[in-house]
Specification:
Elements (H helix, E strand, L loop, with lengths): L1 H45 L3 H6 L8 H10 L6 H11 L3 E12 L2 E11 L1 H4 L7 H10 L3 E13 L2 E4 L5 H4 L20 E6 L6 E3 L4 E7 L12 E8 L2 E5 L3 E2 L5 E6 L9 E2 L2 E2 L2 E9 L4 E10 L16 E3 L2 H6 E6 L6 E3 L2 E2 L5 E8 L7 E8 L2 H5 L10 E5 L2 E3 L2 E9 L9 E9 L5 E9 L10
Parallel strand pairs: 6-15, 19-26
Antiparallel strand pairs: 1-2, 2-3, 3-4, 5-7, 7-11, 8-9, 8-10, 8-14, 12-13, 14-15, 16-26, 17-20, 18-19, 20-24, 21-22, 21-25, 23-24, 25-26
Helix pairs in contact: 4-6
Length: 454
């Protein structure tokens, strides 16, 4: 009897062991099947193959979620620059199936798929000049982040199909596609809506002291607010650059004014106190040199250049006697006390104005000079140097030194007082006052010199 019990118990143990082996073998077989299904899912996630993922899942192939998946993985919701960024991140994706996470119960199974990709979040905290620089940074990035997808499968018709496609865990893999790449997502080259010249008539300024180009942006400009996106503008006169502004932030306003006058450039070319005639271009650029807009405008000055009034040219002088003009090497309004604002203008706080010439050493004669004052251009036009009484006159004797022969015709303000604002004309004559050699003209502005240099 004892022997029979032993055999019976042994048989029971063997039966249980056999059943365990059967169950273990079945479980191992199912794990292999799920691993193969998970591998195929992971590979198609890497490839962004929406149609193949749908075939491997239980999701309705014709439903709204399926359509969203196709459009999403194709980048149809992205602008071109963000799409470039996302494509770069996608190329860094690598997967690993975590076998230890496998569980199965009947016809349901789950397993974790771990995806590693470039640490795009850290990259987006940096600043880039353009989208290509960001794309390169993604490709060069060695740091990665981990995203774990808990894939769930069900067995239908002998196949293990993904049952949580488009679930929150799946969508988490693609969080990078919702990244805000800020200014880089905005097409700066197409950000300007319209422009207009303030104060210009039919595309022309006449007798103007400043140019003002108003630039209106498209609504996309708001995406740049606080993103550290800078722009600057240049001014050209007759195709020669005469001014370049400092960089300034854009994005906080849909309109900006770009100005040009002696406030921006103390050496702006003037004529009779106005911006000199010519063709001007204001060009607005992003910091990386992208041209946002470039607009032209004509400037005219309705003052005739004569030897008996004002309009002495943008250099501030004109010589009416050709013999004398041939002997002049250089001539200019000089910056005696650092109050000169431009070629022929001074701040209101100037103490001395002086017109000086370097001449051929053969010149030894004394010159007679006479200063005239006018408060307005129209008043200056009426001055007749040969017959009108000057405000002050004097004799300029040749000054000879190691650098050459010079004449200086200066005028000082009275102690404790400033010059009156307006136009000052110095007429240059032969010593006997019979021959008018030329005129030099400058302007005393309404504000101190420092107001025009900041």
């Amino acid at each position: 009897m004892m022997s029979m019990n032993i055999y019976r118990k042994t048989g029971a143990v063997l039966l249980v062991f056999s059943m365990a082996l059967s169950l273990f073998g079945c479980s191992m077989f199912r794990k292999k099947e799920v691993l193969e299904a998970a591998k195929e899912v992971a590979e198609n996630i890497e490839d962004f193959d929406a149609d193949r993922l749908l075939e491997l899942s239980t999701l309705n192939k014709n439903g709204e979620k399926a359509e969203n998946l196709r459009k999403g993985l194709n980048g149809e919701y992205l602008d071109e620059k963000t799409k470039k960024f996302c494509d770069a991140v996608r190329k860094t994706i690598r997967y690993e199936i975590i076998e230890d996470s496998f569980t199965v119960m009947g016809k349901e199974a789950s397993i974790d798929i771990e995806f590693r990709l470039a640490d795009y979040k850290a990259l987006l905290r940096e600043k880039y000049k353009n989208i290509d620089e960001l794309v390169k940074a993604v490709g060069d990035c060695e740091d990665t982040i981990k995203v774990t997808y808990g894939a769930r499968f069900v067995k239908e018709d002998g196949r293990w199909l993904l049952d949580n496609l488009m679930g929150s865990s799946f969508l988490g893999i693609f969080d990078f596609m919702d990244s805000d790449i800020g200014a880089l997502a905005v097409d700066l080259a197409d950000i300007v809506d319209k422009t207009s010249w303030t104060g210009a008539s039919d595309g022309t300024y006449k007798n103007t002291k400043r140019l003002v180009l108003q630039v209106a942006f498209k609504s996309d400009i708001s995406k740049l607010a606080g993103k550290g996106v800078n722009a600057y503008y240049t001014v050209s006169k007759d195709n020669k650059e005469v001014y370049s502004s400092k960089p300034f932030a854009i994005g906080s306003s849909t309109k900006i004014n770009l100005q040009y006058s002696t406030s921006q450039n103390p050496d702006a070319e003037l004529r009779s106190g106005y911006l000199a005639s010519g063709s001007y271009t204001i060009t607005l650029l992003s910091e990386d040199g992208t041209v946002l807009t470039a607009q032209d405008v004509n400037v005219t000055v309705a003052v005739t250049e004569t030897a008996s009034g004002t309009g002495t040219s943008s250099r501030g002088y004109v010589f009416s006697n050709s013999d004398f003009a041939r002997k002049v090497i250089t001539a200019a309004w000089v910056n005696v006390d650092n109050k000169r604002v431009s070629t022929a203008s001074y701040g209101s706080d100037v103490g001395t104005i002086s017109f000086q010439m370097q001449v051929d050493p053969s010149m030894t004669e004394n010159l007679y000079f006479a200063y005239f004052y006018a408060s307005t251009v129209s008043e200056a036009m009426k001055i007749r140097p040969k017959t009108d009484t000057p405000a002050i006159s004097g004799t300029a004797k040749p000054i000879v030194n190691s650098k050459g022969t010079f004449y200086a015709m200066g005028l000082k303000a009275k102690a404790g007082k400033n010059f009156k604002t307006g136009i000052y004309i110095v007429a240059i004559f032969s010593e006997d006052k019979e021959t008018l050699y030329g005129l030099a003209e400058c302007q005393i502005l309404t504000k101190p010199a420092s107001s025009y240099t900041n």
